[in-house]
Prostaglandin E synthase 2
Amino acid sequence: MRKEIKFSSYRKVPILLTNTGNSLQLNDSSVIISAVKTYLISRRKSLDEIVTFYPAMKAVNDQGKEVTEYENKYWLMLDETETQQVYPIKEMLVEEIKWRKWVDDWLVHLISPNVYRTPREALASFDYIVREGKFGTMEGFFAKYVGALAMFFIGKRLKSRHHLQDNVREDLYEAADDWVKAIGKHRLFMGGSQPNLADLAVYGVLRVMEGLEAFDDMMTHTKIQPWYHRMETTIKEAVITNQHQLHLPV
């Protein structure tokens, strides 16, 4: 909720707050992922230093609105040896950047028009949000009904802004199948035997729809389900492994 990020001049989520010596705020999901991944690989650099490689810039978008953009946000800030270890073939880096950018420029814009496609779907989406969120009785009531109505109309506006088809499901289906086609028949993930940051970006966006009609329709009408389930399994296994290494309860 807005009150939870009132400390920040950056008004979008996610926001990552760290305490690695100095209190540090990272904005923008792609920047957060790139910075943290760089830190995990290149421990010689501090997170404070790494963040300076992703400077914020003010720009004006096509609608004449001022927005914040970040330089280099799809790049890992590694030296030549580290880069070779992560991307032994140059095309792997080019492909990963291309599809991470595709997620931000296209895929993410398909979510709201699809989950708020009809008043019924908008209400179901906010019912899920209220059920999973920390809302009081009255707060939840207004969030569900007023929010659903508002997002239904916003979804229509976004549909027009991003030039989506009359049936926005078709754009979602095409995007899902484009992603599966890009991976091809001989790879489990775009990263090969293990996910790369493009896999993670696509999974993160699509996971938002879990439990909603749009997600079920996508799973039924596209070829993305096997890849999605592989991502689920791989992430769960990684979480369990990390918890064991840190001696945390699973």
Summary: Strands lie at 15-19, 23-27, 56-60, 66-70. Residues 1-47+58-71 form one domain. The two ends are 29 Å apart (CA to CA).
